[in-house]
Amino acid sequence: MKFPRLDAGPLRWLYLATFLTATGSGGWFVCWTIFAVTSIGLSTWEFGTGVTIAGVVGLTVSAPLGYLADRIGVKPMLLLLVATQGLAVLSFALVTGFWSFVAVSCFLVLAERSVPPLRIALVCGLTEEHERLRHLSSLRVVQSGGASLGAGVGTLVLFFSTRPAFLALLFLYGGFTLCSMLVIRRLPAVPSLRERGQKRRAMVVRDRPFLLATLLFGVLALNWGVLAVGVPLWVVSHTTAPAWTVGVMLALNTIGIMAFQKRASAASNTVSGAGRSAMLSVLPLVAACLLFASTAGRSGTPVLLVLILAALVHTVGELLFVASSWGVAVGLTPQEAHGEYQGVFNSGFTVAEMVAPVVMSALVVGWGTPGWFALAGLFVLAGLPMGRVVAWALRHPLRSRPDLVPTGAQA
Question: What is the pLDDT of residues 390-404, one digit of tens each?
Answer without folding.
Answer: 999 999 887 755 444
